[in-house]
């Protein structure tokens, strides 16, 4: 498996979950600011991911797909994948993306909680 620019962006996105949770655990007073920063960083990373992923696959993203990925992720990512790669390939890519997102999210909560010895709170 190649490490591409779009995969690096996804890894940075996953790491942002861990950093965010570590901030929430260690400095609870900045929780609201941290949440806003998380949203802005995620939106920016997903916008870049859509553009770079399309470029790496030699396709042109559908109109407004990058903006939809950033602003309305639950609509934008499936729209981009299905419109660009078709139902079957887009569906497979979407399932891999959901699996990656679930692992990144759970890891982002578990790892900082273990490191800082804080009980889990969902």
List the helices and strands and how they pair.
Layout: H1 5-26, H2 31-56, H3 65-71, H4 73-116
Helix pairs in contact: 1-2, 1-4, 2-3, 2-4, 3-4
Which term fits the overall shape? elongated
The averaged pLDDT comes out at 91
Give the distance, in angstroms, between the N- and C-terminal Cα atoms. 33 Å
Tell me the count of domains.
Answer: 1
- Helix content bin: over 70%
Radius of gyration: 16 Å
Low-confidence stretches: none
Q: Helices and strands, in N-to-C order? A: HHHH
Number of helices: 4
The biggest beta sheet is recorded as:
none
Number of strands: 0
Beta-strand percentage range = under 5%
Q: Which class of secondary structure composition applies to the elements?
A: mainly alpha
Can you walk through the features of this model?
- The chain has helices at 5-26, 31-56, 65-71, 73-116.
- The chain starts with a helix and ends in a 6-residue tail after the last helix.
- Helix 1 (5-26) packs across helix 4 (73-116) and helix 2 (31-56) packs antiparallel against helix 3 (65-71).
- It contains 4 helices and no strands.
- The protein has one domain (10-116).
- Helices cover 81% and strands 0% of the residues.
């Amino acid at each position: 498996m190649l490490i591409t620019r779009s995969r690096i962006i996804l890894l940075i996105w996953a790491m942002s979950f861990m950093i965010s949770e570590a901030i929430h655990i260690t400095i609870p007073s900045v929780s609201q600011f941290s949440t806003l920063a998380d949203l802005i960083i995620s939106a920016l990373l997903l916008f870049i991911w859509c553009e770079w992923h399309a470029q790496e696959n030699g396709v042109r993203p559908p109109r407004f797909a990058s903006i939809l990925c950033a602003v309305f992720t639950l609509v934008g990512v499936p729209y981009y994948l299905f419109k660009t790669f078709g139902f079957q390939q887009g569906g497979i890519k979407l399932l891999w993306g959901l699996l990656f997102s679930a692992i990144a999210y759970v890891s982002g909560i578990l790892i900082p909680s273990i490191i800082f010895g804080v009980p889990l709170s969902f």
